[in-house]
């Protein structure tokens, strides 16, 4: 095979940073590619060289093979690492890379082609004797055939895109009457995400564990597995928590699943890193789900328990080297748990979010690893997947790993855009997870709407925020003043100084009075909140983004950021909130959006607008379909009424909170 000394990473975000780090440690020259939306992204800064490949939308940059190859030619790159997502499982791209005289750090185009298509891979696995879920994976893709075949499969059944993965192009059907619409939606989403509307149908395995086997192979036919990962905790068929090893795995079951995974890899003459995914029932029966012909998002947990660098192994195999590992060489030590940090709103059905990164401050500590692709001052773009980082806890036992991970999550801070940090901690603290009994139904079973709702800040947090905000204001005033001694702070010859802060969260208003107490302390009293409570907050040391303080004598550390006057992000022991001082902001409170005003829940492309002025609609009726962050979302009416105005235009880009449709409520729908 052709040798190489430079690597272009055809990706972005945390995986691009991850690959670049190992490649640089091994002495390779690294080349990043970036869109206009990623011009200041960390992966651009980390690489030795960076090449612009187009505008922000993926269809105009990261998904264009010709732009990647042009960047490789311009930079003199000799190989390409695809990361995951984007073009990583595009057989035509792998073929084009090799045709251009470059080395593709991944499997052959033929292996990608077979395994990248759920229908073809399932047919191949059946032939290889790998256990598969009953269903339909035929070539005839007409609606009539899919409906007829679906009628033969016991309910519930799953409609899946044959190409791609990540939960896109998937619909779970409990009623045959819903099958036609599920096929329509899955096909549309699949065509948009993967350029192919081919579907398969499968009997849905209810409440299984999602267990995958990491395989590795070289060009000489040597193939091993590196143990399993449990990826059962998911939302919208996308993984949230992964761990290795699987909590219920036995040596016998690992050997059986490992052998099936190796058989699957060998059936397509696999080369490099790959993952064979299975559904595991409580009975111990397991079924082939798919094979990912690339590095997985969750590969760090395997690295931590095996001591292997999978990116380094990928590069070595791509250089034509022997794998140098026998199955007996693979030892699994300790336990690792990874969580995916998404910019999304768990309280709104995990709706993706985009916006600024006011402050990104990842945790540090023993047994903690964080792979991220963001930095303070950057923006979270609506054009890409909302996963921005992975937080991993490792320890000699599962419980040590879990506790270290919880501590890391509470220390980690992401201000500016809604995210799932609190939800991840909630998952790790659920008894079902602690007992290692989570299945793919975990989130549905363990979380109610109340659990997922954002909790209102407590009086204690508001008191700390008020004192911190006041102290920052004082510091700003002293910095602008000339010849004023710090000793004059809080001094007055008249009555005691009293400052006021007012914060509102839904119907809860904290009206706070703050007065000096001692040298660096402040007494905070609540007014008109139903709580006749007073506390003393003493600032011990104020740093740029952190403050050490005493709250009624208890030592605390808070992380903060002030994006604008009167605004303060504050995180205390993992509890984060955004405080807006209504007094500084002239008492203006954001108007609530009524149920008759339909607004865009996020940035995205309007694929379809289904109503016009004068139409009568009912609560729950689909009004429009929005594409954002590679997913399709149905925007529904919140009330019964008559459409009075439609601002939305099919095919247009909309921003978060843009007004799309106005509905005049029917009298009987007004409470």
TrEMBL record:
Function: This protein is a component of the acetyl coenzyme A carboxylase complex; first, biotin carboxylase catalyzes the carboxylation of the carrier protein and then the transcarboxylase transfers the carboxyl group to form malonyl-CoA.
Pfam families from the UniProt entry: Biotin_carb_C (PF02785), Biotin_carb_N (PF00289), Biotin_lipoyl (PF00364), CPSase_L_D2 (PF02786)
The ATP-grasp domain, residue ranges: 122-319
Pathway: Lipid metabolism; malonyl-CoA biosynthesis; malonyl-CoA from acetyl-CoA: step 1/1
Occurrences of domain Biotin carboxylation (ranges): 3-448
Listed GO MF terms: ATP binding; biotin carboxylase activity; metal ion binding
Known catalytic reactions: N(6)-biotinyl-L-lysyl-[protein] + hydrogencarbonate + ATP = N(6)-carboxybiotinyl-L-lysyl-[protein] + ADP + phosphate + H(+)
UniProt KW keywords: ATP-binding, Biotin, Ligase, Nucleotide-binding
InterPro entries named in the record: ATP-grasp (IPR011761), BC-like_N (IPR005481), Biotin_BS (IPR001882), Biotin_carboxylase_complex (IPR050856), Biotin_carboxylation_dom (IPR011764), Biotin_COase_C (IPR005482), Biotin_lipoyl (IPR000089), CPAse_ATP-bd (IPR005479)
Species annotation: gamma proteobacterium HTCC2207
Ranges of residues in domain Lipoyl-binding: 588-664
Designated name of the protein: Biotin carboxylase
